[in-house]
Amino acid sequence: MSGATPVGRARADDALHILAVSGSVRAQSKNRALLEAARLLAPPGVRITLDWSLATLPHFNPDLDTLDGHTLPPEAVRWRESVGATDGLLISCPEYAHGIPGVLKNALDWLVSSTSFPGKPVALLGASVMSVYAPAQLRETLTTMNARFVDDASIAIPVSGASASAASIAANPELARMLRGAVQAFVDAIANRG
Ligand SMILES: Cc1cc2nc3c(=O)[nH]c(=O)nc-3n(C[C@H](O)[C@H](O)[C@H](O)COP(=O)(O)O)c2cc1C
Prior knowledge:
This protein is of the alpha/beta class. The chain has helices spanning 30-41, 74-85, 102-109, 133-144, 166-171, 173-193, and strands spanning 16-22, 46-51, 88-92, 121-125, 148-149. The protein contains 6 helices and 5 strands.
């Protein structure tokens, strides 16, 4: 990893772990492609893992979110554990009807009472520069949840239809430059405050 030292974590490897989550569960999603490209372009010492479990999370229900955790659905337990174990959460999200896609808001609602989420570094990407409401709403929600929102790493990257695969994003010099810069800014923010 250039320009940053991996955060010391008690793990089998020394890599800095970033969990990547797409707010779109569409098979040909540009946001999903962006995260896959980020994985391809990750600097040495950084492992980006993509999490596709959002679509299988049950609807959030506070009745199931009890203090002893016994009533939590297994999918919610696994989701919380994945987020808890990562050094940073990298979200890429579209905008639906000037808002956050329900699938992502649902996943975030399951984290609200999670003890491991407060202080978690979070960066927000988007595959469209047209989306302004969803990023603002996500930022508000995430900061309300006491995430450590990393502004420098949070950008919109204009992925057009022609460049909507991970390989074509990674091969596009301008898109790759923007994506590399965002990931590096996120890594630096995590490492400097880890
Ligand atoms: C139901 C729906 C509502 C949308 N509403 C908006 C919107 O309000 N603003 C916007 O900029 N784009 C909107 N879009 C366009 C999507 O944000 C855009 O297609 C994005 O690329 C989808 O992300 P994906 O390729 O990762 O699935 C909407 C798309 C859908 C399917």
